[in-house]
Amino acid sequence: MDQFDNCPESALRWHQEGKGAVLATVIETWGSAPRRVGSQLAISSDAEMVGSVSGGCVESAVVVEAMDALEDGAARELEFGVSDEDAFAVGLACGGTIRVLVEPVGSVIPEALLTELVTHRAQRMPVAYVANLETKERSLARSGHDQAFRMDRSGFVEDSRTFVGVHNPPLRLIVVGAVHIAQALVPMARIAGYDPTLLDPREAFGSDARFPGETILHDWPDEAVQKLGLDSRTALVLLTHDPKLDDPALEQALRANCFYIGALGSKRTHAKRVDRLSASGFSDAEIGQIHGPIGLDIGASGPAEIAVSILAEMTRVLRQGA
User: Which homologous superfamily does the CATH classification assign to the domain defined by 171-320?
Assistant: First the structure.
């Protein structure tokens, strides 16, 4: 899975190569718009393009405006209506309207600011690009937009002309235990937008035959987790029932900043887990991060339904914070 759409990275590279570069961003939509708010298109002075703002409906018009913006060094707000015919061509039932902000790099987006944005993205640090369209000020923010970050939702601050473009790291799922539930959960999570990695030192379990095309690490879980790193856009799911495999990764996660930690097992199994962690010096607050028994209580039966309950709980925690 691609880590990012790489529009900012492409624009910065073109600018540093001496070409002109523009970033076009969807800032508002009405109706059945082809792309969501925050979607971007990077355009070079040679008309090279990365990304999209409409799925192909209005890109050519945006490129023309981008060339004019490079010439006069000023930002532009464009509004386009997407016809029903064009909308159908990109997979929508009916048309809508989109507003696009066109910003040349250098004259509108400072090179230093774009460099900082790209650095944050490379380091998997959530960051927001803030454009005040009245004062023309551009800045970055790592706090103060909690709801926007949680919901991955770019848009205008209410009753203002300040646009907040959220740049969240891609979601990751780390699964410890190549068991039957993982066989269902991993592909489901990929469909939901996660980049999954499976950890299991038991090569007979974590095999290509059982998980075709998936990323599988056969290191001991704590070593693998250390290599991968844990952050606020990572979910850790423990499925082995075996403390020797689960606990080392769990202990690292409790002192990291994972948005979700879930552990398979009955209430009795979880109580024993809590006792072990308490004995290892973890506080009640740290242990309280664990969702165990794992998954929403939907009466799930069998590996696939349990996987659905886990993914549903992950989504609830990600979007609602609980």
Answer: NAD(P)-binding Rossmann-like Domain (3.40.50.720)
